[in-house]
Amino acid sequence: MIVCFDIGGSAIKGAVAHSAERIVPLGRRATPLDDFDAFASTIGDVIGEAGDKPDRIAISITGVVDPETKAIKCANIPCIDGRTLSADLSAFLDMPVLVANDADCFALAEAGAGAGLGHRIVLGVILGTGVGGGLVVDGRLINEDGGFAGEWGHGPAVASMAGTPPIAIPAFDCGCGQRGCVDTIGGARGMERLHQTLHDRTLTSEEVTTLWQQGDADAARTIDVLVDLVSSPLALTVNITGATIVPVGGGLSNVAPLIAAIDRTVRSRILRKFDRPLVVPGECRIEPGLIGAAILGLGGEAQ
Question: What class of enzyme is it (predicted)?
Answer without folding.
Answer: transferase
